[in-house]
Specification:
By secondary structure, this protein is mainly alpha-helical. The protein has a domain of 108 residues: HPT domain (Four Helix Bundle (Hemerythrin (Met), subunit A), Up-down Bundle). Helix content is 56%, strand content 0%. It contains 6 helices and no strands. The radius of gyration is 18 Å and the shape is elongated. The N terminus is likely disordered.
């Protein structure tokens, strides 16, 4: 008997454990699964990473416009709260905040911000102070992502 998810709820796809490829060790395979889930989206005419992959988010929300609007609005609030916390001197707090923001950006299909945060996270992994150029890149990516989100929200609410 098939159970149905309530409209608007997210369903986690059952992922079968994929065995290592021929000639690949189990350790290499396990490292591979920890790679970022979203890769920057590019096309032939656009060399920049997209700020928002609306098709991805639509697929994640099963086309539920109200859910998509809610997720985008919540993301903006969360991102605005988290980005100012990134340049803390507490290495652990900085890593946790960056990881949370990166995951949230990936979840809504914001690869530009996710990539910028990942670079920041790697640049500041062992440093006691935040990496200023990488932080500025995150702030810029957030501005671009917020602009893309505002445009998408206008589109959805029209």
């Amino acid at each position: 008997m098939e159970t149905r998810m309530p409209r608007g709820s997210l369903n986690v796809v059952n992922a079968a454990r994929v065995p290592p490829a021929r000639g690949q060790s189990t350790e290499e395979h396990d490292l591979e699964k920890d790679r970022p889930a979203l890769t920057p989206h590019r096309n032939e005419t656009d060399t920049a990473v997209h700020a928002l992959d609306s098709a991805y988010l639509t697929s994640q929300t099963f086309g539920d416009i109200e859910l998509e609007i809610e997720l985008l609005e919540l993301f903006v609030v969360q991102a605005r709260r988290l980005v100012p916390k990134l340049p803390t001197d507490d290495v652990r707090e900085r890593a946790d905040t960056a990881h949370l923001l990166k995951g949230s950006a990936r979840a809504i299909g914001a690869p530009l911000l996710a990539t910028a945060v990942e670079i920041y996270e790697q640049a500041t992994e062992t440093q006691q102070a935040a990496d200023q150029p990488a932080y500025r890149a995150v702030a810029t990516a957030l501005e671009q992502t917020e602009a893309a989100i505002a445009a998408r929200l206008s589109e959805l609410q029209a």
